[in-house]
Amino acid sequence: MNILLTGGAGYIGSHVAITLLEYGHRPVIFDNFVNSTSNVIARIELIVNKTIDCIEGDIRDMPALIKVIKENKIDAVIHLAGLKSVSESNEKPLDYFSVNVGGTISLLQAMKKTGVRHLVFSSSATVYGEPRYLPIDESHPTNPTNVYGETKLQTELILRNLSESDASWKFGCLRYFNPVGAHHSGLIGEAPLGRPNNLMPIIASVAAGERGELKIFGGDYGTKDGTGIRDYVHVMDLARGHLASINYLAKVGSHLVNLGTGMGYSVLEVVGAYQQISCKTIPYSVEKRRSGDVAAVYANTKLAESLLGWRATQNLYEMCATSWAWKSQQSKI
Ligand code: NAD
Ligand code: UDP
Fold first, then answer.
1. Which residue of 135, 145, 178, 272 pairs with 300 in a disulfide if CB–CB is 3.0 to 4.6 A?
2. Domain that holds residue 38
């Protein structure tokens, strides 16, 4: 299939591109490089030993999308382009609604005009807000506590309304938990242009000696060791989830599923695993809780398994090992 991959130069998108190429699809990346660089394209090509098409553009530019869809005879879309910082979303809500919601509407209009009806969307476990029970299944109430989560939930609603209005539209909404790790080659990984906010890139940066210590946000949660628990999922497992979703859209139809491992690890457990893998000491201090954080979040993954036949296979050590391979390689260039 010819698959338009919006945000394909980003962290998750670059790993999805590799998986699609490995399974014989032709991804066409569309990205404005607001949080990535075009260097990743050559690295993807090196890993899979194939060339890949990449077009620079903004998803809010509908005519540009129509042109790309027509010229590349696109069959389906995997839509990852978006802004993803929780803190920034609360400071710049208009930017977040413009790109994440407005950009998706522009993409859907381009698809409507060109007759493309299948789209996989990067949603987030953030849509659930404070957990009422664990593990979180897809029927758990949604109640986002930040603008970023609101933009994801509103986009899901638009997709649902659209498929209810016209059955030819098929959507796969994938609610990711905490994507981490990198491709095993160490050639691509998470490379945000600003300062990272997420735990694993920060641990990697401490291990590499770029930062002095990790600040652990809260040691007084009612968890096994007092630190926050999350469901970390390997980015290559996640990438396979997109392939499963595209296949399910073609064979069966719309779906909304969690993509996680179903396992929760504390901050201290992640630090311990990373230390073991990297053979580096990760100095840390325990600080006060980060505003908006919750004690524990992890997924019920049964629906993804029963509908898509998808299950995460890589464990915490593999997540840390590939993150470290990527970080070590990055430090050399
Ligand atoms: P990323 O920032 O690495 O990738 C997003 C890509 O989209 C970047 O390459 C960026 O340049 C591009 N982009 C942003 N705005 C654009 C626009 N207007 N037009 C064209 N391209 C644009 O982020 P990621 O971690 O790869 O996340 C991909 C998607 O998954 C996002 O939608 C994000 O919200 C979602 N998601 C990510 C996580 C996570 O923890 N990484 C968790 C849940 C959901
Ligand atoms: N965390 C931390 N220090 C940091 C960054 C994150 O202690 O510098 C903790 C955070 O409080 C949470 C876990 O690590 O318990 C995962 O945080 P991340 O921001 O990666 O994901 P999210 O909170 O969005 O699920």
1. 135
2. 2-182+233-260+300-313
